[in-house]
Write a structure and sequence with these properties.
Blueprint (H helix, E strand, L loop, with lengths): L12 H11 L3 H10 L4 H6 L15 H17 L1 H6 L18 E4 L5 E4 L15 H27 L24 H22 L3 H25 L23 H17 L18 H15 L6 H20 L5 H23 L1 H6 L1 H7 L1 H6 L14 H37 L15
Antiparallel strand pairs: 1-2
InterPro entries: SAM/pointed_sf, Sphingomyelin_synth-like, Sphingomyelin_synth-like_dom
Organism: Rhynchophorus ferrugineus (Red palm weevil)
Membrane topology: Multi-pass membrane protein
Length: 447
Amino acid sequence: MADTYGPVAEWNVEETIAFLAEKGFEPISIDLLCGEHKINGKCILALNEEDFTQEPLNRLILKDRKLFYITTKCLQRENQETLLELGLRNTPAPSLYQNSHPLHKVESEFGDSEHVSPTSSDDGRPRLPPERTKAFLSFCYVVAVTWITAFVMVIVHDRVPDMKKYPPLPDIFLDNVPHIPWAFDMCEVTGTLMFTIWLIVLLFHKHRFILMRRFFALSGTVFLLRCITMLITSLSVPGAHLQCQPRNYSTHLSSSFDELAKKLSQAYVIWRGAGMSIQGVRTCGDYMFSGHTVALTMLNFFITEYTPRYIYYLHTMSWMMNMFGIFFILAAHEHYSIDVFVAFYITSRLFLYYHTLSNNQALMQRDSTRTRVWFPLFSYFESGVDGIVPNEYDTPAEVATNFTCFVKELCLDILRMLMYFFRKEDINSTHINPTSSDKTILPKKVK
């Protein structure tokens, strides 16, 4: 219908009046828009959401205000090329069809704040920068958390309740399944196999750095939460086969520093062995909740999320190993059933919450302040990602090439850093020990 009056950008006030009258606007609204404010075609194309909350558009009667809003949107949608020629699509002010980068905020006429996630790249693909620095920081985060976890495990071991005074708690699974001595080792073998599969996925995935920082961030957060639950309450030992006794470091000759050193040494043994019994690590008191279940569940969810859907046999095998690993933990009577259930629930929920927000940036940006408060790591690590990470993989040749380029860049960065520091030291030494030729002769002060 708008084609009857020619290109919208060339409408004068009279043609705009005729168009609005044909669309059914009231004469008082047409007089306000075109008679008093001289709105033409270019003005309609340049309108944005903020204009509908200000003069004179907010003075329109409700029917005409809604109708003018819909009409404006339709005209702008039909004249995308004209908007581009007029430079209206790249303006920083929020408009109906602005593709700001990476997110733009739209104030709707109903007073609601809406955040829209537009396409961030020219080819329509989501923007997925590797951001290696963030991956390295997430790695440092998980290393620090594992150290804290190891130290907390030493503390809770020393607080383990006396087995004679506090017998094992009633448990519906442990009371009906006999103890299998080798089951816990089988659980750790299963976890090692799943970890190997995850390393292979990381090696060939095109977006491996995004996967790494998500894995490290989630794992570190869950284990940090586990440290709190272990410290809050010490459960009794779940089985009589576990010989758990508090360690007494203090003697009449030892100091507090010596006790701390011994605890740090024991924590290092736990950290070095990744808390696994097949590495010779034996701990007690760290029951609520199961760290082995956390590791199995986290690996299972990451393997199934970042491998193609048609590899259903791998997903089935991953879930089977997750469930069998949990069964082995309970069959070994190393944890109560509630420890395993809580660990699976917390790990799976955190994984789903994290990925739901990261895959739907509009949900995260809807209330960005609350997201930064409750999910500070997520807000930082996912600030540069504005889409779903596709499961794309490199060939072995591409992996080798990328690794070679990475090593070269790393060596060059180290070389530049060394050159910078050496140059800085030379400059400092020159200022500290100037030669006689460098000394300037100052004129004597005239009395």
